[in-house]
Amino acid sequence: MPQVLIAFLVFLLGASMVSAQSPASVQLHPKPHEGYEIKGDKLYFRHGQAGLIMELATPEKIAQYYHERGSEVGNPFAKLGGELGNATIFLLTLVNRTNSNLTFTPRYVLAKIKSDAYFALDYTVLLDIIDSPDKSLGKLLEKSIYHSPELLDPGKIVTKFLVFPELPKKFDELKVEFDYMYFGNFEIKTNFYFTTK
Length: 197
Prior knowledge:
Structural class: alpha+beta
CATH class: Mainly Beta
CATH architecture: Sandwich
Largest sheet: 7 strands, antiparallel
Number of strands: 12
């Protein structure tokens, strides 16, 4: 009997460690809404020749992102723990096929659950990570996370992670509000909706 209890406790400990290492601790699915299209698990927003593509970054997609860029780091967010260990992470691609610049400021993106708002990670939080003993990991994260205003030249496409703090375990709908994003001189304010169902 004690061996069964020990085996059960080991199983529970292992399961809790696995769940604590998944940044996509809440499975989100795009919710249909006016203003964007959904293809698979991706949201597509377009304004003329510019736009964005947004999807939940699962641990597998995170590892694939770094692998496609020549790194075998896997999923560095799960390894960091702290504020990033259970963060809610999106993979965001900005597309600028216009003749003018696209400006994106991640600090003005909010994730909202009812009246609770969560800000995207900014440079001050990222500084603590970059100053860690593993300088190469810090530099890799600095290049792959939207943390400061981004100016996208004409004809450019950029894909990085948009990182929010850990969200509550139970909720039905998440609204991601984009503000202060400029396609040329045109300011874009748009919302994307995700559901846990």
